Amino acid sequence: MPFKIDLHTHSFFSGDGVSSPEQNIAAARAKGLDGFALTDHNTNEGVDYLRAKGLIREDGQAVDGFLIIPGVEVTTAEGHLLSIGASLPFLKGHPAQEVCDLIHERGGLAIPPHPYDLFRAGIRFSTLEDLPIDALEVFNAATTLRRYNRYAFKYAQERGLPMTAASDAHHHAAIGTAYTILNTEDFSLGGILAQILKSNELNQEYLTPKDSVRKTWNNWMRLRRRRPQSTADVSKNGG
């Protein structure tokens, strides 16, 4: 059976996300998705929240026909890296190789999002070449320039990597703009992770101009909120 899964989404537990996990679920269901991966920036808080609510099961089974995959988008020393299927400790700034190793130790998949995107901390070719990744996000609905998706697709082809597509939604309205269609008889966390490693169909659609502007605004506001804290830290440390 084909299952529509958005493998890269954010909630308000990300510094630049604005929607609650419940809003994301409602929007995803309304668009006909069968599930999504919650990959907030450098935190498992959203995943822990959903587990506490009973919306993510410890045995990896879907809840009411909907599967939420635990994940995190780690800001490694070399760029962003998705952990799909495994929660991680705080690893911001750690080497990508180290993060990959821990993802695999915990049974997850390491998938670089928006590679080549010069404006969004995509992992570059020189690092990708030696990184033991499991698949590559070749279509990101929020990529800064569309040619970055083409570069990623070509690289995945050359290396023979499985490919994924995702919305990178930071607002519930953008969930499911792009997604991966996974054809499997095992609709569970384990079944979906196994299918990601195979050849899959990709639904490729870009964010609307409105959603793109919203995402840029959220990123700007996140940086603006951080500045006062950074100034205080410098004053406190006498820098």
Output the helix-strand order.
Answer: EHEHEEHEHEHEEHEH
CATH H level, superfamily name: Metal-dependent hydrolases
- The CATH architecture classification is Alpha-Beta Barrel
Q: Do you know the CATH topology?
A: TIM Barrel
Give the helix/strand class.
Answer: alpha/beta
Question: How does this model look, in words?
Answer:
The chain has 239 residues and is an alpha/beta fold. It has a single domain (2-234), classed as Alpha-Beta Barrel (TIM Barrel). It contains 7 helices and 9 strands. It has a 7-stranded mixed sheet, with helices on both faces. Strands 6-7 form a two-stranded parallel ribbon. α2 links the parallel β2 (35-38) and β3.
Q: Short summary of the structure?
A:
The chain has 239 residues and is an alpha/beta fold.
What are the salient characteristics of this protein?
TIM Barrel, disordered C terminus, two-stranded parallel sheet, 7 helices, alpha/beta, 239 residues, single chain, 9 strands
Secondary-structure blueprint of this entry?
Layout: E1 2-9, H1 21-30, E2 35-38, H2 45-52, E3 67-76, E4 79-84, H3 96-105, E5 109-111, H4 125-128, E6 136-140, H5 146-159, E7 163-166, E8 179-183, H6 189-196, E9 201-203, H7 209-237
Parallel strand pairs: 1-2, 2-3, 6-7
Antiparallel strand pairs: 1-8, 3-4, 4-5, 8-9
